[in-house]
Design brief:
Blueprint: H1 2-37, E1 46-47, E2 50-51, E3 55-57, E4 63-67, E5 71-73, H2 77-87, H3 98-101, H4 103-107, E6 124-127, H5 131-141, E7 146-152, E8 158-164, H6 184-187, H7 197-207, E9 216-218, E10 221-224, E11 227-230, E12 236-238, H8 240-245, H9 249-270, E13 278-279, E14 282-283, H10 295-304, H11 313-324, E15 328-330, E16 335-339, E17 345-347, E18 353-356, H12 360-378, E19 388-395, E20 404-411, E21 418-424, H13 430-447
Parallel strand pairs: 3-6
Antiparallel strand pairs: 1-2, 3-4, 4-5, 6-16, 7-8, 7-21, 9-12, 10-11, 13-14, 15-18, 16-17, 19-20, 20-21
Helix pairs in contact: 2-5, 5-13, 7-9, 9-10
Bound molecules: zinc ion (ZN).
Residues 218, 231, 235, 248-250 line the site of zinc ion.
Length: 450
């Protein structure tokens, strides 16, 4: 009897272990199955380490890349290079590219049928980008390195995403330029220059009572914490609105010090700049700041967009979208749909929201100021027909290199709800360099019906 009891217990324990094992496996199968199947040594869907199934299209159905005994890209060089960071390279070096980021969607993996390759030969992936618009942006950058992003702030669709330099999959003998696999728009951070003054202005408008009635005096420089903060010229007497339009360092340096470290930290977070956006599973780089690094002088320069400020371009673009859209914007997305070879759609598009990045009244006030900035400084003639609101920046990266030119903003136009960011490396004055690129791209976007 004693023996039987012992055996019963052993059996019970063994069954229990089997049950635990089965449950664990099933859980892991559902959680990780797609990454197991798209593992690069799976010879069903990989040939010589390259994914070998599926097609990638833009939002209009223009083919960007497809597999047919090797990956074939657009024959148009500007489109090929202008979309490569969204499409990806066959070697999988570009982490933000569909070939890497959406590998399991492309191969058509599912729990029941596995990868399905052979019977369905992959799936059709539709991205939100417009090939012609990306090609136009790539062409507008010319020989400069830099980036361009344009998205619809009401739906979140990224229409244009270009990062330069870019590797050419049709010219692989030539060594790819350094850093060309990096998608600067999603994965990098840069010194924002004066574009960041919009954030300092937001914090000032929401925290300093009577800010609209105050006047500021700029004599060309001011002593902060024993160091000089300087402007290109003496701006004279200003209010908060004209200080932003004149991009007055003296005023914004002082405002940052008056706001203090905690408030500045709170506002870069609230603006979504430190957020890592989840773009269909691709995570953007978080902007970083250190308002305490170099005392009051460092805090002042941080409020001006220099100092230790490093901003992610995608997050800056979304922030612009939130200003345009009354305080909240649609979260950025790049995957439009996934369609099986039999025509059935397995994934579609649904709009997501960022939450409040800026208070509605502040957004309205900034819209007016940024519109005046175009009318008073950048010149409406440079943006014919566009109801454009913007802030330029000219970011010093080192004492001997030419500055990076920035242009960020949005169209205050219900029919064309577009927000944008452009940065031209070594381009100098932002409104001229990046501003020109943005005008070219926005004109093409509106001609294209966006
Ligand atoms: Zn000034």
């Amino acid at each position: 009897m004693k023996k039987i009891t012992r055996r019963t217990y052993i059996c019970l324990i063994l069954s229990l272990l089997l049950l635990i094992g089965t449950v664990t496996f099933i859980h892991r199968f559902f959680a990780n199955g797609s990454s197991w199947a798209s593992f690069s040594s799976n010879s069903h869907i990989y040939t010589d380490g390259q994914i070998s199934a599926g097609s990638i299209y833009d939002i209009r159905g223009t083919r960007l890349a497809s597999y047919d005994d090797g990956w074939h890209y657009s024959d148009d060089r500007d489109i090929r290079l202008g979309t490569i960071h969204a499409v990806g390279d066959p070697g999988g070096h570009i982490g933000t590219g569909a070939l890497s980021a959406f590998a399991s969607k492309l191969t058509g993996y599912n729990i029941i049928t596995g990868t399905g390759v052979g019977t369905t030969s992959g799936r059709d992936l539709y991205l939100t980008i417009d090939a012609d618009l990306c090609g136009t942006a790539r062409d507008a950058l010319g020989d400069y390195d830099g980036l361009v992003g344009v998205y619809d702030y009401t739906t979140g669709r990224i229409l244009c995403m270009v990062s330069s330099p870019a590797p050419d999959p049709y010219n692989q003998e030539e060594e790819a330029a350094e850093g060309s696999y990096i998608n600067k728009f999603f994965s990098s951070t840069f010194i924002p220059g004066s574009t960041f003054k919009v954030v300092t202005a937001t914090a000032s408008l929401e925290n300093l009572s009577g800010i609209w009635d105050r006047s500021f005096t700029c004599s060309g420089s001011v002593d902060i914490g024993g160091y000089k903060v300087t402007c290109g010229r003496a701006h004279g007497t200003l209010n908060i609105s004209s200080a932003l339009n004149e991009s007055c360092n003296v005023t914004f340096g002082q405002l940052a010090v008056e706001l203090g470290v905690n408030t500045m930290e709170k506002y870069v977070e609230k603006a979504g700049l430190t957020t890592r956006y989840d773009v269909n599973g691709i995570h953007t780089a978080a902007s970083t700041f250190d308002f305490t690094a170099d005392g009051l002088e460092g805090l002042a320069w941080s409020g001006i967009g220099q100092g230790k400020d490093l901003v992610n371009p995608c997050a800056m673009m979304v922030y612009m979208g939130a200003i345009a859209n009354g305080g909240q914007a649609a979260s950025p997305q790049i995957l439009e749909s996934v369609v099986m070879k039999n025509g059935l759609q397995t994934e579609g598009y649904s709009v997501k929201n960022t939450g409040t990045l800026i208070e509605p009244e502040t957004a309205e006030a900034l819209t007016a100021i940024m519109r005046d900035d175009v009318l008073d400084n950048y010149g409406q003639d440079n943006f014919p027909g566009l109801e454009i609101c913007a802030k330029s920046g000219t970011a010093q990266v080192s004492s001997d290199a030419a500055s990076n030119g920035w242009f960020v903003g949005f169209l205050n136009d219900e029919e064309h709800p577009l927000a944008f960011v452009a940065m031209v490396e070594g381009g100098g004055y932002g409104a001229r360099s990046a501003g020109k690129v943005i005008n070219t791209v926005l004109q093409a976007a509106i001609d294209g019906g966006y």
